[in-house]
What does this fold into?
Amino acid sequence: MKLIPLPAFSDNYLWLLHDEAGQALVVDPGDAAPVQDALQRLGACPTLGVDSEKAPQRDQFLPDSPPHSGTMGQEDGKKWAAAAHSQPTIPKSDRLLGLQLRAILVTHHHPDHVGGVAALRDATGAQVYGPARETVPEPLVRLQQGDTVEVLGLRFAVLDVPGHTAGHIAFFAPEAEGGPLLFCGDTLFSGGCGRLFEGTPAQMLASLDQLAALPDATRVCCAHEYTLSNLKFARAVEPDNQALRDYQQRCEDLRAQGLPTLPSTIALERAINPFLRTREAAVAAAAQRHDPAVNPADPVAVLAALRAWKNGFQ
Ligand SMILES: [Zn+2]
It folds into this structure.
């Protein structure tokens, strides 16, 4: 199995997973074009099988803007308008020369996660799996907590993780080759979490608690490259956290080379992500320093204060 983050828009990653036989799935394709390009470029030659030598080059990970530009960390809705109006055309005669797209996994309804779903499904016949309680282009298999789906021979457990949106789901494959695999959309980012557009702090805390309880080695495939801006905030919350300091250095080195900081792991996020550390004394105290009304013994209040602080953090 190969796991590849395809850059899209200013800071999205569309995660592509494919096996040796050339069968592929993609997660949250907000734009069809980069997926279609990868399906063709990484695909199997009919006589030679999958060409693994065509693995993505470093340049592929370079975003449109420099790593330290102001585009990172923007979780607002401004870019969604552009995503919604993006209607790539995929020549049907060119399709399926490479990887065969078997499935599209959708975590939530935002346009930068679903904008390419219809075009990819029409071009490839891929089955779409998405949240039971959100509006996603039909037809799709609607999923919620407790459901499992099998794709590419991999079993995914579906987790309800409301907060960023009301019906947000995540896909967890405990037995994936190379270690457990989590596709968490905009719920958990490396060093941060999604904005609370439709849910409450209590819902987001429960969602993050559920993700934090996954195995240490779980690879966390977030939908945005927000890591450096998140870590800047995390350092403001926990300036004495050495693991956080070390991780920030590693991520700065990766971004300087144009490489993704993702996937992260659950063990790492538990050590450095303030939104998974609301019960840590240092994090709770920082939240209370920022907002004296916060009860540091209440992790919901701490998370709410951190999220409000981060929203205005430069
Ligand atoms: Zn979103």
Observations:
- The pocket of zinc ion is lined by residues 108, 110, 164, 186 (CB under 6 Å).
- The chain has ten helices and 16 strands.
- The two ends are 39 Å apart (CA to CA).
